[in-house]
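#struct-pred
JK: can someone run the complex with zinc ion? inputs below
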Amino acid sequence: MRRAVLDDDQRDIGVPMLLHTAASLAQDPDPSRFSTAGYLHQAALGRRLLETGYLDGEQTGASLLSLNFHEVPLACRQEAEDRIRRAVALGEPYDPDEAVDGLQVMVAFYDADRDTGLFADRVCRELGVRAYFFPVDATTLETGPRLSDDDLATIAEHHELCYHTATHRSAREITARNQESEVRAPIERLTRAAGRPPRLAAWRGGARFDAGTLGDQLLRDLGVRHLVSNWSIEPVE
Ligand SMILES: [Zn+2]
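RT: done, structure tokens with the ligand placed:
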């Protein structure tokens, strides 16, 4: 699974994924959806949708197209902008607390090194897109400076700040010892920058919500309401 996700992230600048939401998962979903094969299927549908604008009758019920970015090198910025333009033209802007019929689109920036973050803020503002930012303070995947508190506050004027840990951790890696630095501190930082707690969160590795893990219990206690996984955005409950 990890291999499949990393391959996707490295293959492309702006990976389209068709995600499930609570609405499309309401009827007791087949657990096999949440597998590597299920992920690859949704990734293929996302690509088809971005490339052609259609799903060719494929019925999964999923109706959220997420265009996912990590680091966007200078040479790829025009392509990134073109993809954002194409994606947002396909549906309505996604908001986790609004019910909308038909296809919804979100543009998401994960990890957010400073240079990519500032590019993303500017280009999405120009395109009138409210993007979702999942910044971390450190990651092994990218080098270079990270977004400062001031940067985050500026981004929050137009976009949504979301939680993604401090040093790029998976749900399994949250322990009693690091909960303060990996969960509480970054959520407080995002809350200060945006003036409200993050509504969305994602773990490195893209795990779904599991009320049995300390990390997910903390998210719930700290007011996060939706968790983005490799397959879905589902309520924290
Ligand atoms: Zn990440």
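RT: quick notes.
The two ends are 25 Å apart (CA to CA).
The mean pLDDT is 92.
JK: thanks, will look after standup
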